[in-house]
Write a structure and sequence with these properties.
The structure is a homodimer.
Chain A: E1 4-9, H1 15-24, E2 30-34, H2 46-62, E3 65-70, H3 73-95, E4 100-103, H4 105-112, E5 120-125, H5 127-132, H6 134-142, E6 147-152, H7 156-161, H8 166-184, E7 190-193, H9 202-208, E8 214-216, H10 218-232, E9 244-248, H11 256-263, E10 269-271
Parallel strand pairs in A: 1-2, 1-3, 2-9, 3-4, 5-6, 5-7, 7-8, 9-10
Helix pairs in contact in A: 1-10, 2-3, 4-6, 4-10
Chain lengths: 277, 277
């Protein structure tokens, strides 16, 4: 079906973004693609993240998507800019179709840097996302005066993905927040949860952080950015039957409770080929 | 040998840059790597150019190079920025060695945008280089007032590579220059020959262009940039025995006259593995 919106993640975390997009655009057709077989991307070499992400874009384009949301921070910060600058222009010329790919990092940064407020922005994310430096770089471009402090949360996404108990997750979150506050010596004004797994523990972050800290909700920020994007790009205004499909490169049956945790209910995933490394 | 300078090209064109580097730094150790088996890169999909270029960097690092010059415009404009921003930081952390990669496009642009002169900069290059938009983008960042006009020379690099006769090459160059002058309606102030094959037909470009046009010599610009880089980065100041090696992924014996054309004499190429696609 032409004109569908594709949503891509390395696994289930992107379902938190997908949920917000479906709620914001109930009339649009969506296709979700989770590369669970190759998840997580956070610890993979950058060249593998790039190849897997390009392969996923091909898969979604082949199904008829013209606009894709990369609902994965690792893929967004490692691969998106190169895809937009180098890969897409050639792809568009070759098949003569308007196509675009947007990510979750820039919408989050746009929301975090709105207004005139000062202070420190704290970013909690995977190691690969922290290492890419994209959050400090892009925040600095928009608001050179703002300080950014990053905190790599090595084990958090994995613990959420394997369904760890709340007590264990609370311990991890308290530890990461404590490390960051210790380095800062004061409370940040704004907090970015820069991983699509973290909305599931947003309450634990809120409890661990001092009162009054503003937390950016990444799925809502992405839905808002997509709304603005579609308003500026009527060429993507097609395919509005409210159709939904979910593809995955494969996961064991025991992982189904995870889907319910991320989505709020079961989903009829179809097993799909590619991308491969 | 640690501390060598690597020089990489998809084939023989980079020998024009390598020649200028060896002349400028006779005491340094150099290793040239030509991926002739996969040449030319100009018509390949961007993702292949990126993977081949990363593979070539790995090959040169494995031989002991710590600084690599990408002496290929296609690889420089498609892959270099991503390699610098995403691939190298992880690679450096993993092996704990200072490494860097520089290209031919930025040195050329720096030389072309020096001074206060105005007017139009004309860029002759392969289709992939033109399509990347890197030359207009980077020139615009440095000198927003300058106009840039690009001309894709679809057949020129291939004709030089296969050893076409001078008359045929003159016809091609006259045609591309004529197309550009027709669009511009006036002479450009500055001309960039944005492909490492074109120094071999620089005289044909000079003859086809109106008198007084400034032509940027890409090998000399790259040598000058490397000199400045090494002065700013003494950590690469090692390995000075004047050693030379040339690796290639393979070419037929009939191609040897091409080496002589690009280098000015024969070279003892060793056949080397990788990179592959």
């Amino acid at each position: 079906m032409e004109g569908m919106i594709g949503v891509f993640d390395s696994g289930f975390g992107g379902l938190t973004v997908h949920r917000a997009l479906v709620d914001a655009f109930p009339e649009r057709d969506f296709l979700y693609f989770g590369d669970n077989r190759n998840a997580p991307y956070g610890g993979r070499p950058p060249i593998e993240v790039l190849n897997l992400t390009c392969g996923a874009m091909e898969r979604l384009f082949a199904e008829g998507c013209t606009l894709v949301v990369i609902a994965c921070n690792t893929a967004s910060v490692v691969a998106l800019r190169w895809i937009q600058q180098q890969w897409l222009p050639v792809r568009r010329r070759e098949d003569g179709v308007a196509r675009n790919v947007i990510g979750v990092a820039v919408p989050t940064i746009e929301e975090a840097t709105e207004g005139e407020g000062g202070g420190v922005i704290a970013v909690f994310a995977t190691r690969r996302t922290v290492e890419s430096g994209v959050y400090p770089l892009e925040i600095g471009k928009r608001r050179p005066g703002l300080a950014v402090e990053q905190q790599a949360c090595e084990e958090l996404a994995g613990a959420i993905e394997r369904g760890a108990a709340r007590g264990e997750l609370r311990g991890l979150v308290d530890g990461y927040v404590g490390e960051l506050l210790g380095r800062l010596g004061k409370a940040p004004e704004t907090v970015i949860l820069g991983c699509t797994h973290y909305p599931l523990v947003a309450d634990l972050f809120a409890a661990a952080l001092p009162a009054g800290v503003r937390m950016i909700h990444q799925p809502a920020a992405t839905a808002r950015a997509l709304k603005g994007y579609l308003a500026r790009h009527p060429e993507y205004d097609a395919s509005c039957g409210g159709a939904r499909r979910w593809l995955s490169t494969g996961f064991p049956a025991e992982a189904m409770p995870l889907v319910e945790r991320f989505w709020g209910g079961g989903l009829p995933f179809e097993v799909s080929a590619g991308p491969g490394v």
